[in-house]
Amino acid sequence: xxxxxxxxxxxxxxxxxxxxxxxxxxxxxxxxxxxxxxxxxxxxxxxxxxxxxxxxxxxxx
Length: 61
Ligand SMILES: [Zn+2]
Fold this sequence. Notes:
Blueprint: E1 2-5, E2 16-19, H1 22-37, H2 44-53, E3 55-56
Antiparallel strand pairs: 1-2, 1-3
The chain binds zinc ion (ZN).
């Protein structure tokens, strides 16, 4: 699983997401940026910033 915490990019935001594919995490994160943080266009370095902050998440068994 890949995990992204919005607070690592936007301090104070509690939103986070996780998915099997990095691309899916990026897609959800971009959607969240648009809807919650008012980004009307997606800049190249936003995707880069998101990717840099995606972490591997081990399943908890
Ligand atoms: Zn956020």
